[in-house]
Amino acid sequence: MKPLDYVNLCYIWLSSWSNLRKTWSGRSGTDTTPIRVNYGHETVPGSDEHVFGGLVKLQDLNREFPHCKTHPDILYLVSSALPYFPVRLARMARKSGARLVLNQNGVAYPGWFGKGWERQNRAMAQLHAMADYVVYQSDFCKLSAERFLGERGREASVVLYNPVDTGFFCPDTSQQPEKDIVLLLSGSHWTRYRVDIALETLHKVRLHNDRVFLKIAGRFCWHDDELKAEKEVQRSAEKLGIAAHVSICGTYTQEQAPALLNSSTILLHTKYNDPCPRLVVEAMACGLPIVYSATGGVPELVGSEGGVGVAGSLDWEKDHPPQPSLLAKAVLEVIENLEMYAQGARKRAANNFDAIEWLRKHRQVFMELL
Fold first, then answer.
1. Contact yes or no for 181/202 (Cβ under 8 A)
2. SS (H, E, C) 318-365
3. What are the backbone angles phi and psi of residue 210, rounded to the nearest 5°?
4. Is the four-CA dihedral 356, 362, 367, 370 of positive or negative sign?
5. pLDDT, tens digit, for every residue of 253-264?
6. Distance CA 14, CA 262 (A)
7. Under CATH, which number does the domain 22-163+354-369 receive?
8. Nearest to 342 by CA among 262, 248, 257, 245
């Protein structure tokens, strides 16, 4: 971190100190609200705002347990969307008598983060040890946290996969069936390989089926200049001779997500060791089969009925992106059995990842702590 950045962060902390003291000054004796949750941020974004990662989970929780800035009794932090100075905030909350719940996603490790991964994990490790309760987003998240953040022994924890509102994310039966097959690559693309592999996969698939197209949604994050990154993608598509069959549609809000998914046929997920991508369960809820790197926590989500994965070894030292030739073979397999996989994906999402059950389990955890 640059010195100026640190000075700015310190200024932010100090300028908000009085508000934080008011928030964590202890619960009011006249307050009868049974569960008062604070999410560590000034506000929780609405579903019409552009957000990504852990903030989306806060939108789910905020509807059931509104963000409370007056005498909260639970501080709920998401490891992939931590506020400024989260350890100091957690200590302040604990001192006030509040309980700390940590929603633990992935961690930094040498393979994907590179130099400085230990420093990146420092705050997460402290929170992981301090927490009264840890919600792991997948068994893979629990495995990686215990390896890189430290084991908690028999301390309270549970694995709760990312949820989806299966009433909002659902197949759009009003749309006419498309003759073309649209592969969707979506999310925040922090590494270029995710997009390059999707382009190469499309190129190989079209050698066997020229009805297949690729749609790319989300942010290109490997450059500070997103337009520069987009031009790189366009040049790669042109070099492969598939530019006419690739569309780029940019970022989208949670409100826009179902329409995006329902305009697609198959979700192509190329990230290696993805801990627990919410996008996958949202796509499944809309009836999209998943073709994916069968690493990280994704196999736990998709199962055998929701799509076809390309196997990969677990390696903390180096990333192993899936081979485009194998992904292309998986895409063609799904196309041959499209209706079966589409129904299997929807059924699995509805039976295993519905937000109602996820919220019920959170209420149970909160009541146990209180």
1. no
2. CCCCCCHHHHHHHHHHHHHCHHHHHHHHHHHHHHHCEHHHHHHHHHHH
3. -85, 10
4. negative
5. 888 999 999 999
6. 46
7. 3.40.50
8. 262
pTM for the model stands at 0.89
- What is the Cα–Cα distance from 23 to 25, expressed in whole angstroms? 6
From 41-55, 118-132, 160-174, the region with the lowest mean pLDDT: 41-55
Burial class (CB in 10 A: 0-12, 13-18, 19+), 128: buried
Is residue 155 predicted with pLDDT exceeding 90?
A: no
Question: Helix, strand, coil shares of the chain as percentages rounded to 5?
Answer: 45, 15, 40
Question: How far, in Å, are 108, 122, 204, 257, 328 from residue 117 at the CA level?
Answer: 5, 9, 35, 32, 33
Amino acid letter, residue 350: A
Tell me the three state secondary structure of residue 38. strand
- Residue pLDDT, tens place only, 170-180: 999 877 666 79
* Residue 291 Cα distances to 45, 200, 219, 301, angstroms: 30, 14, 20, 12
Contact 81, 54 (CB under 8 A): yes
What is the Cα gyration radius of the chain? 21
User: Is 103 within 8 Å of 79 (Cβ atoms)?
Assistant: yes
Residue 21 structure tokens: 């003291």
For the chain, residues classed under CATH 3.40.50.2000 are: 181-352
Question: Does the domain at residues 181-352 carry the CATH identifier 3.40.50.2000?
Answer: yes
How far is the C-alpha of 307 from the C-alpha of 220, rounded, in Å?
25
